[in-house]
Specification:
This protein has 243 residues and is α/β, with parallel strands linked by helices. Helix content is 31%, strand content 12%. The chain has 7 helices and 6 strands. The strands form 2 sheets. Strands 3-2-1-4 form a 4-stranded parallel beta sheet, with helices on both faces. The longest helix has 18 residues. It starts with 20 loop residues before the first helix and ends in a 10-residue tail after the last helix.
Length: 243
């Protein structure tokens, strides 16, 4: 729950450099290799995340798509791929199967990379995994786990970064860093947020702690409307996982 009349400070640009310098800073020593052999894992690449992959591909780096458990097949369709990225190609695509552990997923990623290399007439160890990034909101947690486990540049999956998809936690970290943040309350029962609602002037914004875009977000103009949407969020599944 957020009071809409509190705004966030503008975020500083993440990168100030251009061309390959962005990848060079993030991939570290792996950039000393031939880019054509430096494999980048893109976790759940859909929507504008495909455009990130496209820019990496333009710089000569091969891509492998990794799809997380439960990722909706519909989200992989052309309906969720920008027209400009329809020709984006991956050396392989891996679905993280329900029985697999993280180690088993990594083993199958390496196996797929070796198979792709052999199909090109190259040795099995032709590709080196040089990076792993999220291609969409749903892939954030897995990208953090994979990159940390693989020993490539990573946000990590511990401490403050253990809940990077949790909007409440993100706002608390923003506040802790001394930046302006929204007034908020969070709970699994309406009674846990009712007091906050009574202390605010409507309208207020209700949104899930995860997912992306406007999924599940609603501007509520009364206590009754807020209560109805609160219970709705607890009864449905987010497009990008969660709720």
């Amino acid at each position: 729950l957020m009071a809409p009349n509190t705004t966030l400070s503008p975020q500083r640009p993440l990168y100030a450099n251009t061309e390959n310098s962005i990848l060079s800073k993030n991939l570290g020593n792996s950039t000393m290799m031939n880019p054509a052999q430096s494999l980048i894992l893109l976790v759940d690449p859909y929507s504008t995340g495909c455009m990130v992959g496209q820019e990496i591909s333009k710089r000569g780096y091969p891509l492998m798509a990794v799809w997380t458990k439960g990722f909706a097949p519909e989200m992989k369709s052309e309906n969720h791929i920008p027209v400009s990225c329809r020709d984006l190609r991956y050396v392989a695509q891996i679905d993280d199967l329900d029985p697999w552990s993280l180690d088993e997923l990594i083993a199958n990623i390496r196996k797929a990379a070796s198979t792709a290399a052999r199909n090109m007439g190259k040795p099995d160890d032709y590709y080196t995994i040089a990076g792993c990034i999220a291609g969409g909101e749903a892939g954030v947690d897995m990208a953090d786990l994979l990159s940390e486990k693989l020993g490539v540049a990573s946000n990590g999956a511990k401490g403050d970064f253990a809940n990077r998809r949790d909007k409440k936690v993100q706002q608390e970290l923003i506040c802790k860093a001394g930046l302006r943040s929204v007034r908020q309350a969070c709970g699994e029962k309406f009674e846990e947020v009712e007091g906050f609602l009574k202390s605010q002037t409507f309208p207020v914004v209700l949104k899930p702690t995860d997912s992306a875009g406007s999924d599940g977000v609603k501007l509520c103009h009364s206590m009754e409307e807020a209560k109805e949407h609160f219970h709705h969020l607890l009864s449905v599944e987010a497009v990008n996982g969660g709720y």
